[in-house]
Amino acid sequence: MAVRTYNLVLDTKETVIPEPIYVRQGDGTGAVVLHVSVVDRGRPVALSGNLQFKAMTADNQNVISDNSNFKDIDLANGKFTYELPNQVTMVPGRVKLAYFQVKETTGEQSLLNITIDVKPAADINPKNAADYIALIESWSKILAGVDPNGTILKEVVEARGNYSNLAGREDDQDNAIAVTNSNLANKADKTYINDYLSQVSYVPETVASLDELKTKYPNGKPGLFVTADNGHKYIWTDGAWKDAGVYQSQGIAKESIGWDMIKQPLTRAVITSGEVKIDVSAKTIAASEDLVLDVNFNFIYVNKESKLAIPETNDPLYYYIDRTTLEYRLDTKSAAKTLTNNSVLIGILYGGMFYSFGGHSDEHVNYVGQKYRPKRNFGEIVYGDLNIDYSNNTIRTATKQTIFSCNGQTKTSNSALAVKIPVDSDQRIAYVYYDFLNDKLICVNVADFLNTNLWYLFAIYNGEIFDATGKHFTFIDRSRLADREPETSPILFDDTYKIVISEADEVGTVHIPAGTCFYVNVNGLYLRIPDQREIEYSNPQSDVNDKGLLTFFYVVETKEIYADYFKRGYADIRLFSVYRGKVYGSNVKAYVVNGIEDGGWSNNENPKRDLIDWYQLATSSGKANIAWLGDSTWEGYRVKNPDNIFPVYLNKLLPNEFNDVKSFNCSKGGYSTKQLYDNYDALTANASDLGLLMIGGGLNDGYDLAGLNESEKYLDLIVKKARKNGLTPVIATTQSTALLYASKATGGDWNKQQSGFDLINKMKRRYAERNNVDLLDLEKYTHDFIENSPASMADMFTDYLHGQDPIHVFEANVAMAYLSQHCDFMEKNQLIGITTMNARSNVPYNKAYQPLGEVEDGFKVKFNYTATDNDVLIDYQLFIPADGNTWHLDGFNAGNTVKVTINGKIYDVTTDGKICELPIGYYHITCTTTAGTVDFKGLKVSYE
Fold first, then answer.
1. Which of 148, 227, 667, 720 can bridge 635 by disulfide, Cβ–Cβ 3.0-4.6 Å?
2. Distances in whole angstroms, Cα of residue 614 to Cα of each of 504, 621, 625
3. Taking 90 as the threshold, does the pLDDT of residue 332 lie above it?
4. Can you tell me the distance from the alpha carbon of 858 to that of 876, in angstroms, rounded to the nearest whole number?
5. Would you say 786 and 737 are in contact if contact means Cβ atoms under 8 Å apart?
6. Rounded to whole angstroms, what are the CA distances from 150 to 64, 108, 135, 154, 162?
7. What is the H or E stretch that residue 21 is in?
8. If we measure between CA atoms, which residue out of 139, 44, 126 comes closest to residue 90?
9. Cα 390–391–395 angle (5° rounding)?
10. Which residue from 818, 804, 779, 781 is spatially nearest to 922, judged by alpha carbons?
């Protein structure tokens, strides 16, 4: 009996389970039960092979290896139950080395480490434990004598698999065989075991419901059983049928589906259980009683046998089932002319072979009672994509790297692979192979290739892909497939235009920009949405198994786009589906869902970074370059010198603080915030090694409520995109400096829009505070500059908004001061000495300072020691605002010469007095000694 149970989720992105498992010394096997799920970032990981538990006792003296206490094993979904053996609990203390291992024919894979705390018990002491371990060791010696090198035991264990004894496994292989007490000391006949193992089917038996299962096998039966009414799998354990969860694609557990699982269109069927039998001699095609079909997660369980005559024809035969009458039929005509809305295509019979949908689907096809096995190695694509281009009959790799797999082997190709499709592929089946020795694709009309260098990937016929899932394929130009039903062809977007979806719990909106393009299969139709679409929808999605996925369809006649769980008309075109914030059934790169790209499948965001994070990156020579994403006020409008555009001019200031940081101008005049987001990749294409994104814009947005909401929406998308790319986002206010009510009629350039600029900036300040984003208030400083700068108005701007050179240079100084980690903005006279908080130095103050008896020039302490080198007394940054005052820098020195460097210009300070004036802007100041006596009080920044 279990007294404690733990639900363990082993996520491959972690390294150790955070909480230990607690057991008591002396706990028996099964007292503590672990329900284990293996996931990768929350998604189940399919396992294969035999499970083992391995550990060291708490004293690290003995190894524990066990494969007999696993229950409820569901390798396909990465789940199993394990009863901790009593060997673990014999020695009190912390078991630091414990893990599960999967043994395959190709090797072993270890899962994450877990921690077990064995609490001491009152009735067991270390001596008892030592006696127990000694007993185990004595058994080991006896076994070593009976079975040298462990060869007999190894064969028995491998034959036994995950069963507690060999008898249990043999019972499960054939329920009619009565296996009595097997003597494990005798070596099992290897041929006998292999014969039985070869008969084990990995295809579960399917029944209509749990009630039928109980009636059919009241006393249980070993194996895996699937009930078609709910798609769940059942196993017989502890005298009862136990629900082991959703079987693979038989249903969708909440929050458990992946985007590539919904590639098959609504009117195709994927065989998930049962078989289709082809008898070429008798010229019949038959479907078994237990045939289960997956139609985009709506399941058809026929529950009756069917046999049809194969007519004489040289044409391909389409094998259908009607989802309402459950009647099968063969059709020699084209699908587009014969399909009704209830017809489901199962596969195509051609040349004596049956081609069905889904990866390795031939497992469910029998040829005259025997499983058909072509003379070829079945391979698959595990990473990367192939592009099928029907416009020039070419298959080529669509990714820089493609990884192929076959029978446990993997081969990585970094080449641009391409192969021509035979021109008659609409008349004959073409087979695609990967030649792993020569790293190339081969496409021929020969099914049974004997060349061992070739891995069979898929078959292609009349534009359809067979014997493979669709998740690694993209398509171009479906125009040759006009005789097929529209839904059977994948649809691609031109992802120049992003479709933006905002989804809450039960409602959502879809924004489809004007110009969005689809490649669809309706008489070669190239579908383009000329106008912008805003679609609102209601989407409770309490359980996707109830209704399926909410899908968006296009009506050819009316050009309407609607959302429903089933299409309303035969010719309506399925575009994409939405479920819990993610897009399915299309090229996800064309979608943004709730600010998350790749259809909601990308990581939401990297950890949020602020300017402190960026500064640390910039001072450690990391990727910390700066991109300025804004409109014409940043791009540069009417400037006399393009080098004075402030994102460019900033490059003159950055070396004062950073060794290897560059600034890039990525702005575009006239762009709204939405256009900045839509064109983000193009605008930043030439900006390398970015670490910081300065976000401007807003002057070209709308200023009514809808415009402000849209501006904030796309500002939010830019911030999230920056964070997803690992950048630090900083929001900057617009430099709106013109008169509020100047209209074009009276000589103004912006037609009373300045009041809107004020609303945009208020929104930016509010957003930055609410979302913890750094804010650079350029509006404030630009306004102060125009009001208080000694420069003439004509030198600063000509249209009351776009700054000329002086404004841009000043704004670069504002930005530089803001980017520096420690920069004081001067508001009053400031002493710079030993006590200044933001001043840095390489001279220890406790060895180099001398208190002053009386305050001198405002200082209470000074530097006073003998210098032997060029020590940095003060390293300080400050910003002089445009406040109308005239600032200057004074030095106070009574010792050897001190060199004061101001933005690269060096001054020798030998006595007390004024060093220079400080016009408005950013300054990096250092004070360096010369060898000899140092008697230096400091610097003073002041105005008159």
1. 667
2. 33, 11, 10
3. no
4. 19
5. yes
6. 16, 19, 19, 6, 19
7. strand 21-24
8. 126
9. 45
10. 818
Burial 777-789 (b: 16+ CB within 10 A, else e): bbbebbebbbeeb
Rounded Cα distance, 351 and 355, in Å: 10
Q: Are 384 and 403 in contact (CB under 8 A)?
A: yes
- Measured CA to CA, the distance from residue 595 to residue 598 in angstroms comes to 10
Q: Are 445 and 429 in contact (CB under 8 A)?
A: yes
Using DSSP bridges, classify how beta strands 418-420 and 430-435 pair: parallel, antiparallel or unpaired.
Answer: unpaired
The H helix count followed by the E strand count for the chain is 18, 66
d(CA 360, CA 367): 16
Check residue 872 and report its DSSP letter. Answer: E
Write phi, then psi, for 800 (nearest 5 degrees).
Answer: 65, 15
Which pLDDT value is given to residue 94?
A: 85
Position 130 pLDDT exceeds 70: no
Which of 481 and 464 is assigned the larger pLDDT? 464
Alpha-carbon dihedral 747, 749, 750, 751, rounded to 10 degrees: 30
The closest of 271, 268, 211, 261 to 241, measured between CA atoms, is: 211
State how far Cα 702 lies from the chain centre: 34
Residue 244 sits at the vertex; the CA angle it makes with 242 and 246, to the nearest 5 degrees, is: 135
Percent of the chain predicted with pLDDT > 90: 19
**Integer Cα distance of 683 and 678 in angstroms:** 10
Residue 897 confidence (pLDDT) above 80: yes
> What is the Cα–Cα distance from 287 to 270, expressed in whole angstroms?
14
Distance CA 775, CA 773 (A): 6
Q: How far apart are CA 280 and CA 472, in angstroms?
A: 33
Spell out the residues 6+ positions from residue 788 whose beta carbon is closer than 8 angstroms to its own. Answer: 882, 883, 884, 920
Residues near 205 by beta carbon (within 8 Å), at least 6 away in sequence: 223, 224, 225, 226, 273, 290
What is the reported pLDDT for 297?
52
Whether 315 shows a pLDDT value over 50: the answer reads: yes
Nearest in space to 293 (alpha carbons), one of 317, 260, 267, 332: 267
**The amino acid at 146:** V
If one counts every other C-beta atom within 10 angstroms of the C-beta of residue 114, the result is: 23
Which range among 79-88, 172-181, 299-308 shows the weakest confidence by mean pLDDT?
172-181
Residue 915 has pLDDT above 60, yes or no: yes
Confidence at residue 74, expressed as pLDDT on a 0 to 100 scale: 87
Min mean pLDDT across 316-320, 411-415, 797-801 is at 797-801
Over the chain, what is the mean pLDDT? Answer: 76
CB atoms near residue 478 (< 10 Å): 26
The three-state secondary structure class of 249 is helix
Q: Which amino acid is at 610?
A: D
Kind plus residue range of the DSSP H or E element containing 482: none
Q: Yes or no: say if 369 and 392 are a contact pair by the CB < 8 Å rule.
A: no
Q: Quick one: pLDDT band at residue 744, thresholds 50, 70, 90?
A: low
pLDDT score for 241: 82
Indicate whether 909 pLDDT > 90. Answer: yes
Question: DSSP string covering 677-728, please?
Answer: HHTHHHHTTT--SEEEEEE---TTS--SHHHHHHHHHHHHHHHHHHHHTTPE
CA-closest candidate to residue 300, choices 357, 343, 258: 343
Instruction: Identify the structural domains of the chain with CATH numbers, from first to last.
Output: 4-146 (2.60.40.3350), 148-199 (no CATH), 205-250 (3.40.1620), 268-373 (no CATH), 375-481 (no CATH), 486-600 (no CATH), 611-821 (3.40.50.1110), 825-943 (2.60.120)
> What's at 152, amino acid-wise?
I
For residue 711, CA distances in Å to 753, 818, 934 come to 15, 25, 58
**For 242-256, what is each residue's pLDDT tens digit?**
776 544 332 323 333
Q: Are 631 and 667 in contact (CB under 8 A)?
A: yes
Q: pLDDT by residue (tens digit) across 78-99? A: 899 999 898 888 888 888 888 8
The tokens describing 126, both together, are 């270390």
